[in-house]
Amino acid sequence: MAMRKVVIVPTLLTLGNAVCGLASIAYASRIGKDGFSRDFDSLYLAASGWFILAAMVFDSLDGFTARLFKSTGRFGAELDSLCDAVSFGVAPAFLLLQLGPRWDQPHLHQLTAAVATLYLMCTILRLARYNVESLDGVGSGKKFRGLPSPAAAGCLASLAVFCGELPHSWPALAQPQFSSGLEFAAVVGALFVAILMVSRVGYPHLTKSLLRGPVALILAVPAALLLVFLRELAVVLLFWAYALVGFGRHLLGRSESRRRSLAGANERLRR
Questions:
Q1: Which of 63, 152, 212, 227 could join 193 in a cystine, given CB atoms 3.0 to 4.6 angstroms apart?
Q2: pLDDT tens per residue, range 114-160
Q3: Cα–Cα distance for residue pair 147/7, rounded to 1 Å
Q4: What domains are defined for the chain?
Q5: What does pTM read for this prediction?
Q6: CA pair distance 55, 134, nearest whole angstrom
Q7: In this structure, are residues 102 and 125 in contact, taking their beta carbons and an 8 Å threshold?
Q8: C-alpha to C-alpha distances, 150 to 1, 15, 178, 243, nearest whole angstrom
């Protein structure tokens, strides 16, 4: 009986992840329907983004509880990937269709649909690769190869939350030109994070490397200040900083490696 309780807790948390993904899709599907006003559309857009972020909380808690009760196994890993495919693949891709240009701009909307399709495929490939690499023992456990799918989904969800809260929290920015710019940025950003997911760019595991010891306290203070003063915009900045800083470090590392290779080649030629 005790064993059942131990196993069912992380399983329910994992399923909560998928339920949040379904709720995100449901709210995003209401945007622009039944003649609702723009205020309702903004609320639906923000709610859809928040549910994806809530799915990330469930995704973190299920792994924590599984390790806490020593109930990790292949069943939990496979269930986690299936739920992640819904919450961090299907839900953000569908949200992008509502976040980007609409059908009144048919060519741009078709481009958005193509990017959303690519995003979904990259998420599924990312999850499959992660499962295979976990079985093969690839990686140190403190670093991901490729942008993690929850972080990629968070990049898009944070934009949706910001766009949805824009008329209420940032009325000065709620201008047609700025909104159009955000629509275009969402499509380009989705393409960027989709490619990063299937890349070999290294990203630190937040809970295993960054959010431990004194480093956690150092990062917590500026993050808390951003959340207090910038609110929804802070969520955008935090997610995109994680994606862009990792990519920037990769480029710098490759540049430094190339410089060392050239220096070594020149040294051999002098000899």
A1: 152
A2: 999 999 999 999 999 998 887 766 655 668 889 999 999 999 999 99
A3: 29
A4: 2-270 (1.20.120.1760)
A5: 0.87
A6: 22
A7: no
A8: 33, 15, 27, 11
